[in-house]
Amino acid sequence: MGVRIFVDNLPAGTTEEALRALFARDGRLVANVSIMTDRQSGESHGYAFVEMASADDAARAVRALHGHVINGERLHVSAARQRSDKSKAGL
Predict the structure, then answer these.
(1) What is the set of domains in the chain, with CATH numbers?
(2) CB atoms within 10 A of CB 64
(3) pLDDT surpasses 80 at 91
(4) What are 19-47's pLDDT values in tens digits?
(5) What is the reported pLDDT for 82?
(6) In this structure, what are the phi and psi dihedrals at residue 88, rounded to the nearest 5 degrees?
């Protein structure tokens, strides 16, 4: 299983292909890219999850890309936090 990275502050129009290419630089292996979109409009929410093939690739990507500028927007790149169980949220 890969290691997930959270990418925030994506500029409008960023594609999954472009994000995959950015994260694959320097030989890093990308397993999956998912840009979160609005279900009705299909527009990007401005954030994505990138799954890297290994913990080493994930750490290298975070170091290399946090603060990277795309189309005037500075990316916020960090290890993704595990979601809490929604059924326990009210307890």
Answers:
(1) 3-81 (3.30.70.330)
(2) 15
(3) no
(4) 999 999 999 999 999 999 999 998 999 99
(5) 80
(6) -100, 0
Instruction: Report the C-alpha dihedral over residues 35, 22, 11, 13, rounded to 10 degrees.
Output: -70
> Rounded to two decimals, what is the model's pTM?
0.86
Residue 57: exposure state from Cβ atoms within 10 A (0-12, 13-18, ≥19): buried
Q: Where are the alpha helices (DSSP H) in 12-54?
A: 16-23
CA distance linking residue 87 with residue 22, whole number of Å: 36
87 or 1, greater pLDDT: 1
Write down how long the chain is.
91
With vertex at residue 4, the alpha carbon angle to CA 43 and CA 14, rounded to the nearest 5 degrees, is 30
Burial of 63 (0-12, 13-18, 19+ CB in 10 A): exposed
Quick one: pLDDT at residue 2? 84
Q: Alpha helices of 24-68 — where are they, by DSSP H?
A: 55-65
